[in-house]
Predict the structure.
Amino acid sequence: MKKQNTTDGEVFKKKLEQELTVLETELKTVGHKNPNNPKDWEASSGEVDINASDLADIADNIESYESNTAILKPLEKQYNDVKSALAKIKNDTYGFCEICEKVIERERLSAIPSARTCVAHKDQVRN
Ligand SMILES: [Zn+2]
């Protein structure tokens, strides 16, 4: 199987590293890394006050946690996709579809450097 050449890998690596930095910054605004599992991000509950005695405060915290979770989940998925793409560049397996193992379309990688599948299989990837 023909591999992507190294020049391409370098170009995409830069893009992916930039994307990773941006994603990490965004993730930090709504959550924090799980200390036991660096791939797992947990939503923060805003101004957390565990001793909140006021029911309204507690409700606010829950609401804030839920909206943070809604923001965090897709960011977390994207973050892990970018990380796995960077790992693939390192292992020289970058640019192949995870389903059919064919080379991912060049235009697709240019638009989404963290793509894990070719266009035909974009909805079939496991999360
Ligand atoms: Zn495919």
